[in-house]
Amino acid sequence: MPKQFVPRHVAVVMDGNGRWANARGLPRTAGHAAGEASLLDVVAGAIEIGVEYVSAYAFSTENWSRSPEEVRFLMGFNRDVLRRRRDVMNDWGVRVRWAGRRPRLWRSVIAELEEAERLTAGNTTCTLTMCVNYGGRAEIADAAKAIALDVAAGRLKADRVNEKTVQRYLDEPDLPDVDLFLRSSGEQRTSNFMLWQAAYAELVFLDEPWPDVDRRHLWKAVETYARRDRRYGGAVDAPAPA
């Protein structure tokens, strides 16, 4: 596919793990475990087709409301996935980044995220942003708070605050806008993911639960993306039929 038709940044909501497991008579945690292979395969497929950035919704700020058992599993699972897979990501030339809040997050998870960031900092093939304890509204609220503090301290003029200013205060300021927003398992909503970055994203929803997703689903979504007409608020009149 010509490069101009390939999305630069793909945001992924890995939905349906629990339902996939329950449909097989398994605990919800088994679905999360099965989804690990799907994430690796999608990242591999992104590299093959030329996607430069992948952002994965691994644990949201709202996920703390789940059962204590599931929260504990997800914390340990995210930590262990990073530990198990960071060398693979490094071998593939993937740069791993973290977006999300520190409060409440296990220190062992933060340590693994930071180690993965350190190990892969020089890689340029693709950037995988692990969004752990992340929420789109929380990210914007945190940016607004930091801007207000800098205005109060005299480091920033209030009348100079614009969209570019807000961008600089986000968790990952150099992360480009989301081009393709991909969600599995049939749900058709953004669920508070990358609200700022996905303002003009093309939305593609898969019927398959996340553990059944692989790189072929990504490629099909990219084909759908390539057929979309992205106008960014502009419009061109179609010629009248003869």
Shape: globular
Radius of gyration: 19 Å
Oligomer: single chain
Strand content: 5-15%
Give the count of helical stretches: 7
Class from secondary-structure proportions: alpha/beta
Strand order of the largest sheet: 3-4-2-1-5-6
The secondary-structure element order is: EHHEHEHEHHEEH
| Secondary structure tally: strands | 6
Textual characterization of the structure:
- The protein has helices at 17-22, 28-49, 68-91, 107-120, 136-152, 163-168, 215-227; strands at residues 9-13, 53-60, 94-99, 126-134, 180-183, 202-205.
- It is an alpha/beta fold and 242 residues long.
- A six-stranded parallel beta sheet has the order 3-4-2-1-5-6, with helices on both faces.
- It is globular, with a radius of gyration of 19 Å.
- The mean pLDDT is 95.
Which helices and strands appear, and what pairs or packs with what?
Elements lengths: L8 E5 L3 H6 L5 H22 L3 E8 L7 H24 L2 E6 L7 H14 L5 E9 L1 H17 L10 H6 L11 E4 L18 E4 L9 H13 L15
Parallel strand pairs: 1-2, 1-5, 2-4, 3-4, 5-6
Helix pairs in contact: 2-3, 2-7, 3-4
Summary tags:
single chain, 242 residues, alpha/beta, 6-stranded parallel sheet, 15% strand, globular
